[in-house]
Design brief:
Blueprint: H1 2-25, H2 28-44, H3 49-53, H4 57-81, H5 87-109, H6 119-146
Length: 147
């Protein structure tokens, strides 16, 4: 049973990495279209991001997507690494995975038409992982305090 759980955790992490890679593989114009689609969906829900953020709505959606993708990546990496290491070490390794994957993702985008590599995006991605790190630490400490 333990091997099945570990295999599932590896699979989830790899699948999520493939999803991130697939989004990064899109040329710049298609990526922009996705952002505009998200803005439109929010508009249908009664939230006008373009009136809130103005011309920066597309930028805000793109960066929020980066942040969210890597928040989830951290959680999946943590879920896997905790089967191999203690809590502290597994969190640090999971954050390292987030940072390294963000770096490789930005390098990959150099080769995609209409896309560029940006250190800013690596920082945003890593901050998504860092927030997940902090939340997981707080939850862990709260659980320890209640026991």
């Amino acid at each position: 049973m333990k091997n099945n759980k570990r295999t599932l955790r590896w699979a989830l992490l790899i699948i999520w990495m493939i999803i991130i890679f697939t989004f990064s593989q899109l040329p710049g114009n298609l990526s922009d279209e996705q952002s505009h689609a998200v803005i439109y969906i929010f508009k249908l829900l009664g939230l006008r991001l373009d009136s809130f953020f103005g011309d920066l709505a597309n930028f805000a959606v793109r960066k929020a997507s980066h942040f969210s993708e890597y928040f989830i990546l951290f959680l999946l990496a943590l879920n896997l690494t905790k089967t191999y290491f203690n809590k502290w070490k597994s969190r640090n390794i999971a954050l390292l995975i987030v940072f390294l994957y963000a770096c490789s993702d930005e390098f990959h985008q150099i080769f995609i038409p209409g896309r560029t590599a940006a250190i800013r995006d690596v920082l945003i991605d890593t901050c998504g992982g860092l927030l997940a790190y902090l939340i997981s630490t707080l939850i862990s400490r709260r659980r320890q305090a209640s026991n």
